[in-house]
Amino acid sequence: MNWVLVVIGGMVGAPLRYLTDRAVQSRHDSVFPWGTFAVNVVGCLVLGLLTGAATAGAAGPHLQLLLGAGLCGALTTYSTFSYETLRLAETGAGFYALANVVASVTAGLGAACAGVWIAQGTWA
What we know:
This protein is mostly helical. It has five helices and no strands.
């Protein structure tokens, strides 16, 4: 049963990641990978909310599998982040590569912390 929850979450997260990435990136005329940045930060926020809710007893293990492992696992993408950062560096856009690393890590951690904080304030 657990793997079914992960699969269902992944079935939603993967297309959501693709569609969101394309929609966000099409609105920016820049080499910076805004689409990947957006899905990763949103995924960190959702996982933070879920973690805070689970800590407060408001989210059980099935919801954690569905949304955490399934949805967030398919929505976020470390491999694409790494690939896009490498491509930026290889094509001479070193500033954008460095900015992608710093902004992604900072915003991702900030979003996860904000999610935990919001959830704990809501369900504590």
